[in-house]
């Protein structure tokens, strides 16, 4: 008799974005004249930069010629891309990471979901609350958690680290020592960032306790402040306790192109085994490589033209972030984020729940955002707005909120 993976049945179902979609659709049907602006989804809107388009065209042509055609890519990524990453993202920032410690993939969502596979099921995970849902859900699917607790709104046997206004939206060391610690900075959804001395404390903690940090740096390109690290490997000792996840989605608009990478330093050893070789084994068995044309596009991200164009693109989103932050602050809202990340995290006014504020904003201002409670129990009473819209829509949305 066939049985299913019963761990999947523990998942309460993420109704967040489908509920938002349904509510917006119903509102638009009832109010066809309304001009609804979305500052809700975490997807980019600007087109791919010219340097990237050029690299794509060139490599597509190569694929049409027998002399330059490329079949299966190397499992772990083409050398040209891995070297460009090692040099630009690590060596140039003073981080000791070699090209052969980089594993090219189709994005950080899959890597952040798959990385747990190389760890035993008896490991206990710690996550921030609120959190990007992939880390928890994939551990649930694997059987590394208990049941979902409806009252608390989270899972048994998971260590949740509340990130609230009172701790500046930064996690505190939990009472119980976790095996795997998921950290994401700059953060989705709070838009908060961690300073280098603060991250160093986590690295020291992990090394002291034998934990492993899984560090999601998908928003690294949005960092504007000097003391905020772009990589966990800027911290001393991170090579022996941290795995880093990166994506081309948010810095270069690859959400629909798909490219990312994971760094597993060769010094990272647990249970007598080096994790680099385990991840290489997993990657080689289950993944057949990111497309050649996409890896060439990724290489163009590091060209002088690519860098200049993407700096401008990130700047465009960050000027939206600044406008949202300042607009809301001047309208009397408690706001955070938006300085090193394209997300603004605001406290709902008048003790409204996250969903009450969602309805209020949709009905009174025709603006769509994301309820903080959708990211975890401690997101209740908060709301996320993104800077990924067009400038025109963003400025219009702020005027409407100010006029409420
Ligand atoms: C957008 C995002 C990613 C990137 O995902 P891709 O699969 O590379 O598009 C990873 N982590 C977080 C927290 C994100 O918000």
Automatic annotation (TrEMBL):
Residues at which pyridoxal 5'-phosphate binds: 72, 108-109, 132, 188, 219, 247-249, 258, 288
Q: Where does substrate bind?
A: 15, 42, 109, 132, 188, 288, 384
> Which CDD domains does the record cross-reference, listed alphabetically?
AAT_like
Question: What are the record keywords, sorted?
Answer: Aminotransferase, Pyridoxal phosphate, Transferase
Q: What is this protein called?
A: LL-diaminopimelate aminotransferase
* Single annotated GO MF: pyridoxal phosphate binding
Family from the record: Belongs to the class-I pyridoxal-phosphate-dependent aminotransferase family. LL-diaminopimelate aminotransferase subfamily.
Q: What class of enzyme is it?
A: transferase
Q: Which SUPFAM superfamilies match?
A: PLP-dependent transferases
Sequence ranges assigned to domain Aminotransferase class I/classII large in this UniProt record: 35-401
Q: Which GO terms describe its biological process?
A: lysine biosynthetic process via diaminopimelate, diaminopimelate-aminotransferase pathway
Q: What gene is it encoded by?
A: dapL
Its UniProt pathway annotation is:
Amino-acid biosynthesis; L-lysine biosynthesis via DAP pathway; LL-2,6-diaminopimelate from (S)-tetrahydrodipicolinate (aminotransferase route): step 1/1
Q: What does this protein do?
A: Involved in the synthesis of meso-diaminopimelate (m-DAP or DL-DAP), required for both lysine and peptidoglycan biosynthesis. Catalyzes the direct conversion of tetrahydrodipicolinate to LL-diaminopimelate.
- One Pfam entry name: Aminotran_1_2
Domain of life of the native organism: Bacteria
Catalyzed reaction equations: (2S,6S)-2,6-diaminopimelate + 2-oxoglutarate = (S)-2,3,4,5-tetrahydrodipicolinate + L-glutamate + H2O + H(+)
Cofactor names from the entry are: pyridoxal 5'-phosphate
Could you tell me which InterPro entries the record lists for this protein? Answer: Aminotransferase_I/II_large (IPR004839), DapL/ALD1 (IPR019942), PyrdxlP-dep_Trfase (IPR015424), PyrdxlP-dep_Trfase_major (IPR015421), PyrdxlP-dep_Trfase_small (IPR015422)
The PTM N6-(pyridoxal phosphate)lysine maps to 250
Q: What is its EC number?
A: 2.6.1.83
Q: Where are the transmembrane segments?
A: none
């Amino acid at each position: 008799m066939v049985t299913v993976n019963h761990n999947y049945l523990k998942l309460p179902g993420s109704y967040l974005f489908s509920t938002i979609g349904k509510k917006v659709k119903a509102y638009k049907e009832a109010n066809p004249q309304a001009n609804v602006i979305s500052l809700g989804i975490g997807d980019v809107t600007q087109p791919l930069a010219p340097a990237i388009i050029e690299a794509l065209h060139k490599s597509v042509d190569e694929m049409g010629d027998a002399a330059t055609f490329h079949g299966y890519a190397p499992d772990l990524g083409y050398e040209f891309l891995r070297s460009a990453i090692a040099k630009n993202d690590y060596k140039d920032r003073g981080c000791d990471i070699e090209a052969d410690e980089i594993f090219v993939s189709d994005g950080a969502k899959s890597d952040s979901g798959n990385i747990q596979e190389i760890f035993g099921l008896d490991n206990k995970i710690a996550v921030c609350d609120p959190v990007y849902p992939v880390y928890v859900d994939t551990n649930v699917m694997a059987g590394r958690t208990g049941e979902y607790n409806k009252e608390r709104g989270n899972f048994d046997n998971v260590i949740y680290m509340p990130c609230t206004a009172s701790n500046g939206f930064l996690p505190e060391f939990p009472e119980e020592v976790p095996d795997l610690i998921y950290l994401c900075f700059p953060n989705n959804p709070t838009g908060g960032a961690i300073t280098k001395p603060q991250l160093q404390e986590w690295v020291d903690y992990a090394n002291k306790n034998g934990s492993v940090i899984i560090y999601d740096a998908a928003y690294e390109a949005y960092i504007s402040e000097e003391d905020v690290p772009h990589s966990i490997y800027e911290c001393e000792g991170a090579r022996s306790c941290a795995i880093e996840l990166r994506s081309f989605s948010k810095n270069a608009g690859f959400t629909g192109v798909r490219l990312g990478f994971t760094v597993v330093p060769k010094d990272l050893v647990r249970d007598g085994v080096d994790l680099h070789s385990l991840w290489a084994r997993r990657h080689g068995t289950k993944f057949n490589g990111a497309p050649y044309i996409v890896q060439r596009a990724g290489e163009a991200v590091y060209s002088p033209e690519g860098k200049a164009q993407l700096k401008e693109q990130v700047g465009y989103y960050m000027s939206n972030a600044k406008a949202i932050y300042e607009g809301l602050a001047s309208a009397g809202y408690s706001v955070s984020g938006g300085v090193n990340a394209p997300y603004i995290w605001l406290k709902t006014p008048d003790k409204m729940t996250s969903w009450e504020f969602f309805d209020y904003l949709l009905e009174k201002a025709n603006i769509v955002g994301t309820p903080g409670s959708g990211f975890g129990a401690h997101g209740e009473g908060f709301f996320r707005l993104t800077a990924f819209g067009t400038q025109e829509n963003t400025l219009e949305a702020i005027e409407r909120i100010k006029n409420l």
